[in-house]
What does this fold into?
Amino acid sequence: MSNRVIKVDALARVEGEGSLYVRVKDNEIKEVRFGIFEPPRFFEAFLQGRHFMEVPDITARICGICPIAYQMGAIQAMENAFGVEVPGPIRDLRRLIYCGEWIESHALHVYMLHAPDFLGLSDAIQLAKSNRDLVQKALRLKKIGNDLLEAVGGGRAIHPVNMRVGGFFRTPRKAEIRALIPDLEWAIQASHDTIRLVGGFNFPDIEQNYTFVSLRHDREYAIHEGRVVSNRGLDIGLPEFLDHFDEEHVKHSNALHGFQKPGKQPYHVGPLARYAINYDRLHPETLSAAKSAGLGPVVRNPFQSIVVRSLEILQVCLDALTIAKNYEEPDQPHTEPVVRAAVGYGATEAPRGLCFHRYEIDDQGLVKTARIMPPTAQNQKIIESDLWKVVAAHLSLPDEDLKWRCEQAIRNYDPCISCATHFLKLTVDRE
Amino acid sequence: MTANDALIIGVGNEFRRDDSLGLQVAARIEARNLPGVEVLTHHGEGTGLMSLWRGRSLVVVIDAVSSGQDGGTLHVVNTRLEPIPAGWTLFSSHAFGLAEAVELSRDLDELPPALWIVGLEGKDFSHGQELSSEVAHALESAVTKVIELVSPMA
It folds into this structure.
């Protein structure tokens, strides 16, 4: 009888605190648990009774890496509740600041957290020893993302304070936005270099027949708005989201596990889902780079998410450049909402995937109920499903190597554990 | 402010009790309006810290430390001479924090000519804004140490 346990008590290079436990008996996997032990944060509960104008600044605190995702989802939900339409230039500025968050978040993940896995290195510090130029490029790319956030977001890259329901408190001057252009032009070239580098990595030969779910927009590669679409024919507006998706509590995690109804099926949100659903919305330059990197219109190997994430850096740099070149200052920084009792829905594509919000507001503008489904919570089931496949394909590996492979498989999702808690340690038990 | 000014960075989270000590030490120093001294606060994400100290000549970072010693114990590390001790847990909630930023800067030759870490041992990192009494009593010792370190420029 052969018993084997692989255990990671605290996962490295992920945001927040999580763990992994794998139990193998007679070379057969018995149990895989992706656990989140970071304590629940109860955001939805303490939003109750708050004035709607406070909500974007409170939800921004859910995450230091993707505050825009939470702010913008909340803002758009409030605007949906009150029937506010924002004009084109405000919409462009929203997309621009979101591009900044994507550049910053994706650059951190691709270079500092994920690339070392493929190069056999323990972290970015080792990477800097072997490839100093690469790390310097990553840091500059990330800083360009920060600068963009600061230019639009009110001088702060973390938890920016300038976005509000109806628009912005202050809109940036044309010169401030034009000043970003040379850096964005450099970032586009750096993104091409990144794609060439990560496209050449060796990927474990694992594919999954995922249900992909992401936003889809009429004209754009969906980032900050769109309908919810899957690769299995689902195409719904945001008010229908909870008819099709829900979350449940499982014993081993402080984050709720998202699933698709009926039958509690796992689904996949994030770069691979967005890419598959919005392939025809990619900029021609991104499409061409994808083809050069050997990718078709659908990528089912989760380890290739690093390539798709790099393509997305290019995509948002191109988008940001177009917006920066065409930006004209809006007449008004915001539209004043007229409060009414209503239910509002908002969803955006956070760097890690679809992030859904629903708020019920009373006639005084106070929140009666709040519901937020962060991407990492939605991805937990599919991460566990990937891990089953990865462990099964690598059972012959010694425990330490198997552990490494499992952690890498989790990092494919760039999980944001802090956001999901409402969520890594790895344990493999070989019995 | 110029690159020659001393830079003091208080790191922490104001809502996790003793983790906020870096911010509180920085606030006390800022209140003294020392000439030639710039005081900033930061949440502790590594690449952000690197961009703050890049090109500066004298930097002191204040952060909460958890190394198993008594609450309020003062730690001083001259990063030019030694790495941040391996046993320290620095309370960055991010994947890439102060210790990584120091070592990456060293490898990239971007470590300022003088970069000191002044740490106080924290005791209570739970939710809330009040410091543990041990840390509250030790706060001024960190203030004095930081001012002593920047005094050649102050």
Notes: The first helix of chain B runs from residue 21 to 30. Chain B touches chain A at residues 43, 45, 47-48, 50-51, 93-96, 100, 103-104, 107-108 (CB under 8 Å). Chain B has a mean pLDDT of 88. Helices of chain B lie at 21-30, 46-53, 98-107, 133-150.
